[in-house]
């Protein structure tokens, strides 16, 4: 009973408002109908909804404004299966995206156009009130569900014309993209934008399990995130497992730990190998002395080393020794040496060991929100203070569209962000913080555990 009474009051109030509007416009009240079940019709005698607006021109409009200003909301339906909602502009043409189809009612406007199963979004600024203009489409969703941001009609689920910025929701957050072909997300790969580079992972979180890492200076790592001091545009390979088969039409390049059998300390260090299609894996480094000991008098020995698991053979050639033999027979010199500044291998290896120890002993613990977040001051646009205007152009079909974008003054604003080393887990809603050993703890570990790890042929010549 109460609901019926309230509905009757609303209909009565709406009727009075509509009759008043009709009188103010000098129109006959015959253009307004309230039928026996409470449906209201404007310019139609047979309303089939609570409110139906129509006219002979097959173009219906509704304007909601504040006071006498007409820069408010416009709701228009210019043809079948189409609807247009605008703010700050009035649709005056027959094609929403056509030239001068809109009349500016304010200095900026926004619109949503629904037509034949598509949804389009328009925004414009820097307009002159009372002038016609061509709207600028910013985004659309087509009838197949494809989403396009900028550019022409999308032909993929998401098509973007321009730069894309992705964060994890905080000012300094690492942006991530997760890729999966499983709706349950049980197996996925990911791309993470880290503070110093880009991480890619197949089968896990790229930030935690990095398989490929591209550093800001152009360094690329496979299985590693360190590139040595001062390195730029370096390709670094982490130690892997040697392949046992050779697929057709390719070679395999990999790094693996190798310890010379004749080294009493069995010191294993990384060596670079290439394996060809015939199963021969050749050391490119080339300082493997597995089957012989180089001449102690040779200041910089080198070798040729290869394995072939199809033949079950290993070959190891003393290249420096062979050239020395040729020199003795021919009386000619083929090996030339010069001195360069020596690196402090003890210090270098010690610092590298300490860095690895800190990384291996860094743990991640769940912490409270207050412990994970901090307030920082950032500069943001002050939208109440326009200082200038930026003019750019876009090509839409054959039309060159001028886009005027206001340039705002900057102001300081406090924002919450994750502290360095903190992480927010979007699957559990929990916060985690990396806990690193102190410098004193790392130095104590170095002093008791560090050993210089270089192969025998280097140790003998230091």
How would you describe this protein?
- It is a single chain.
- The protein has 462 residues and is of the alpha+beta class.
- Among the domains are: 57-164, no CATH class; 175-330, no CATH class.
- Helices cover 15% and strands 38% of the residues.
- The chain has six helices and 30 strands.
- The chain has an eight-stranded mixed beta sheet with strand order 4-5-6-9-10-12-13-14, with no helix packed on it. The protein has a six-stranded mixed beta sheet with strand order 15-16-17-18-19-20, with no helix packed on it. A five-stranded antiparallel beta sheet has the order 21-22-23-24-25.
- A hairpin with an 8-residue loop joins strand 4 (60-64) and strand 5.
- Helix 3 crosses helix 5.
- The model is unreliable at 20-28 (pLDDT under 50).
Radius of gyration: 36 Å
- Global mean pLDDT: 80
Going by helix content, strand content and strand pairing, the class is: alpha+beta
- End-to-end separation: 100 Å
Q: What portion of the residues fall into strands of 2 or more residues?
A: 35-45%
Low-confidence region ranges:
20-28
Apparent shape: elongated
Could you describe the largest sheet, including whether it forms a barrel?
8 strands, mixed
